[in-house]
Amino acid sequence: MSEQTDNANDRTPGEASRTHTLEELSREYKRSVPADLREAKPFEWYLREVTADPRIARNAHQRVADMFDHYGTRYDEDAGVVEYLLASEDPIHDGENTFYGREVHESIHEFVNKVKSGARGLGPEKRIKLLLGPVGSGKSHFDWLVRRYFEDYTRRDEGRMYTFRWTDLCSVIEDQDPADDTVRSAMNQDPLVLLPQEQRDGVIEELNGALDAPYTIRNEQSLDPASGFYMDELLAHYEDDLQAVLENHVEVIRLVADENQRRSIETFEPKDKKNQDETELTGDVNYSKLAVYGENDPRAFDYAGAFCNANRGIFSGEELLKLQREFLYDFLHASQEQTIKPRNNPRIDIDQVIVGRTNMPEYRDKKGDEKMEAFNDRTKRIDYPYVLEYTEEAEIYRKMLRNADVPDIHIEPHAMEMAGLFGVLTRVEEPTDESVSLVQKAKAYNGEIDETDEIDERKLRENGDRAADIAEGMEGVSARFIGDEIAEAIMDSRHRDRGYLSPLAVFKHFEHNLENHGSIPEEKLDTYHRYLELVREEYKERAIEDVRHALAYDVDEIRRQGEKYMDHVMAYIDDTTVEDDLTGREQEPDETFLRSVEEKLEIPGDRKDDFRQEVANWVSRRAREGSSFDPQENDRLRRALERKLWEDKKHNINFSALVSAGELDDDERAAWVDALTEQGYSAEGAREVLEFAGAEVAKSELED
């Protein structure tokens, strides 16, 4: 993004205008339109085309399943989950709608598996895919993204589909309204449905013989009532000469999904029960045609119901379980029988992926309703929880900032991560193992488990799901709330002429606004304030660590100490002696020195051997690879050595002076600020963290 901006700024005004001429814009648009979008083809052409590429005749589940694979996949071996790039990278929107978090990608993986099972005819094609999750978990945005990609996919050659229209009807049907001389297939059906079932089965058998796919082509649909009427009238006129009917009165046209035009994609949302009836789903009488065709004539029906519009594509039900029970009954036939039965009209076959979304309160209410048993049996629930890895959660906020017109402000280190940590703490269940704290559990979920830690992440997740009402991550503070508070903190910082956003500013907004957020239960407020204090404590440790790195960091000394540590570790493991640097005499490994390093990582005495062996193995691996020993390359060892160096030096640092600018030499403070800016701080933010960490260390020194 920054490179594009820089290049744009380098252009002259004349160059910019040439780039955006109407001619160029027109060419770009034309390239985005399928070449055959405006063309009408004969039915014979379609038969040849579908024989050459049987995938053209896929049903909705098969096309949606292939769509997910088309944009790319990546397999996460650790999680055993396929990541679909349309969600993890969002290629057609330049990453604007990427999704983060292991739990979210597990949910997407499960959703796609159900669609793929439906593509194979294993049952889920007759079920509603119900995305269940808390408010602000991203389920609606994922549903929206799937619809956008389906639109894009049907514009591509790989996703193309076709329908048909009737032409020159008035020449045969005497009472046909001249306005209806050419009529598009009301349900946008595949042209194959024009063939009687016996002949269609023969064509489909041939298609499946040439099909290279994990599913088979199937189509047992009947023509929609209006098309059925035209077919009967035309066959009677041509004395059952099907070829004459199809050659003289049928044109095949490209079908591109378009939600705005309600074509092969439809969204449906609950309204007030007084203003909503079943015709919104199934269609209704076209009263403007009643005077022309008369009552009960299929030509006098308006195929404008949501299920009609979604045919061949995706039906999306927003807040589905908020619908009245009577409306949900319409979903029973639509899902199980794949038909709809409009009032005073014959049944209509449908082909679509039915997706519903619902929040937790509505799900709990309907789950306990015995009268909803049939509906519940026809749904495949897919849990869509909050993210439980706080660094992944932080990426959600960064995405929010990338997609917005953010003021010129510097986001300080840890600001997004600590906001994410607070969100995660509200979502995970308290550990049942008293030896593991809530923050340790969050770190374990974030992948921060050292080999010597006795923390079983898998067991923590299993226990968390058992302890939760439905699943872990289905309750807590939403990313939406946290994002709103970050936005407020940014604007508040700008009003105060602060060019940076620190974690302390974010904490302040959390603390002030928890009570004002309508989705946070009052009984949770005390708990959430306690979690906020845990996050403050975690940030304090990180801030001190950063200042420690700035004030006491010495590459040469860390290398010397690291080499000394490894000499003594190898002697300890091999049960040999080590040469003393000063006297040159052989001596036993210095256990006091070894423990002074290891204790900085809080490694207990009964685990020291594991840690020493881990580091020794790491050194051996590097030696085999031809790499020299460098303690900077081992994160745990580096941190331990830095902390030891800090302990050795901190008594010579006046921490109280860090809080008061007047007590510190300007050059010394400037050097420390420079050291912090190298870690990603702004100059203003560096001064703040110096004062904050200095005050905390000074306070702890006094307490000691």
TrEMBL record:
GO terms for molecular function: protein kinase activity. It holds the Pfam family AAA_PrkA. The keyword Kinase applies. Keywords: Kinase, Transferase. Residues 8-31 have a biased composition (Basic and acidic residues). InterPro entries: Prk_AAA, PrkA_C. This is Serine protein kinase PrkA. It comes from Halobaculum saliterrae.
